[in-house]
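Milestone M4 deliverable, item 7.
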Amino acid sequence: MRPEKLGSAARQMLFMAGQEGTSGDSTPIRVLIRVRDEPNDQQRRHLTEAGAQVHTVAGDVVTASLRAGDLGRLTEVDAVAYVELSEPLRPEKGTDTPDK
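Output delivered:
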């Protein structure tokens, strides 16, 4: 594993997965992956083999979902420069925060 490739929230998620023994948990988390260049087919396959389900590719940024326990495997992919959890910019409707 290459922890320097993980943002703080992703590092915390991986730590919690290890502590709780949830590495086998099938509940996916959403991540943003910065890759070294726009990924080609082989690099996308490497992401998939590391456990990521690729959703969107926009230049050198990839959105994907995977199990928290697979974050470590994802950091081993050479094309991956950085991984962070994907978080909404504002609360989703139906949360406790009133919509303005």
